[in-house]
């Protein structure tokens, strides 16, 4: 498999811009920690960070992108684990084992910050897909699937495997339906196994 780049790292910035970025993210993170993610507003974050609201909008564009910036550190750790970490999540394992390990790890990742992900995905209808992480997940799954089922429509199947991780669906299953995380992982295994079991012979 080709090695994929970790996305979500901040671009090279001037010192003053980097300082403002850290102030804004720290203010947003503290606001989320003390008042919940629903408390995040661009105006309040700007005041708490000691910068103009225009600076916040220029740097992040909208609230969804600001929330994604808050979750970037955990996201970068997750990406490094499946791109460069030890198997079975990282390279070196059978693609079928890596597929299952990735789905389980993404379930844990979503569980840890589901409320923030829900807020980030509540912007424009394509907010979830505009984030670079979705594209990276999709490419990673498509590469694994191309080894498991070379003749399959891997682009479609990658989207299908990522669909259960939409934050609104994930939270509905966890909180409204009361599904334990273990049950969700069992369902993900069933999806993966349906692709792995029916893999064509070489």
Describe this structure in words.
This protein folds into two domains: 15-70, Arc Repressor Mutant, subunit A (Orthogonal Bundle); 72-197, Tetracycline Repressor, domain 2 (Orthogonal Bundle). It contains twelve helices and no strands. The protein has helices at residues 15-35, 42-49, 53-60, 63-70, 72-84, 95-112, 114-120, 127-130, 132-148, 154-162, 167-176, 181-197. The longest helix has 21 residues, at 15-35.
The assigned structural class equals mainly alpha
**% residues in beta strands:** under 5%
Q: How many individual domains?
A: 2
**Class of the largest domain in CATH?**
Mainly Alpha
Using the CA coordinates, give the radius of gyration.
18 Å
CATH topology of the largest domain: Tetracycline Repressor, domain 2
Uncertain regions spanning at least 5 consecutive residues: none
In total, the number of strands is 0
For the largest beta-sheet, the strand count, sense and barrel status come to:
none
Compressed to H and E, one letter per element, the order equals HHHHHHHHHHHH
**Alpha plus pi helix count:** 12
């Amino acid at each position: 498999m080709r090695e994929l780049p970790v996305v979500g790292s901040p671009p090279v910035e001037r010192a003053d811009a980097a300082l403002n970025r850290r102030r804004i993210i720290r203010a947003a993170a503290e606001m989320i920690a003390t008042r919940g993610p629903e408390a995040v507003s661009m105006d309040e974050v700007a005041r708490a960070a000691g910068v103009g609201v225009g600076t916040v909008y220029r740097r992040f564009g909208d609230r969804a992108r600001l929330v994604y910036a808050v979750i970037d550190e955990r996201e970068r750790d997750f990406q490094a684990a499946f791109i460069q970490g030890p198997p079975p999540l990282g390279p070196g394992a059978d693609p079928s084992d890596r597929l299952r390990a990735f789905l389980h790890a993404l379930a844990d990742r979503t569980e840890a910050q589901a409320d923030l992900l829900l807020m980030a995905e509540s912007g424009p209808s394509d907010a979830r897909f505009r984030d670079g992480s979705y594209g990276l997940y999709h490419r990673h799954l498509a590469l694994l699937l191309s080894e498991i089922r070379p003749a399959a429509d891997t682009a479609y199947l990658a989207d299908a495997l990522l669909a259960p991780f939409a934050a609104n669906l994930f939270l509905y299953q966890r909180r409204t339906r009361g599904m334990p995380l273990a049950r969700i992982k069992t369902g993900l295994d069933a999806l993966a196994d349906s692709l792995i079991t029916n893999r064509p012979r070489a």
